[in-house]
Amino acid sequence: VIRHTVVFKLKHPLGSALERDFLNAAQNLATIPNMAKFECLRQVSAKNKFDFGLSMEFESQADYDSYNLHPLHAAFVEDRWKSEVADFLEIDYTPIGRV
Amino acid sequence: VIRHTVVFKLKHPLGSALERDFLNAAQNLATIPNMAKFECLRQVSAKNKFDFGLSMEFESQADYDSYNLHPLHAAFVEDRWKSEVADFLEIDYTPIGRV
Question: What is the value of ipTM here, to two decimals?
Fold first, then answer.
């Protein structure tokens, strides 16, 4: 399992209609096939500069690649992410068993 | 629910015995009460500088506070984290429903 996450900050004012619209659009990514546990998250630690996060899981790198190439994802990145996100960081995880 | 995560990089060589020992010590944090879904994770994206992550969930801020103050956590931070971690970022999340 690969958990793909991105933590981000929008250019929009906190609590604005533009913010709500962006988060709704982001949530449509959950309809892309072969993805599990999609979550739209509020970032609540004062120890970083980000306000939101997205998290999702893929069973394989192939599923992750398909997501990246999916037209819905490509359009979201091109039409919304590039112009509305002020800063972001991608973090991907796989579980480690007892070492 | 509050999901507390920290993504980090160790001073130890990747794959070293020192690394394994640190990760084992980190996994003992899972014995602290009122915590759920503890995970020790490998960070696998090339888009950031970190190698590992920890993730856990608390039902309330009070449980999160208790974890922070717990002697096992305090000792781990003082005895291991401060001397063995090269860089880290704390990210905490709460779920957002359909906005």
Answer: 0.95
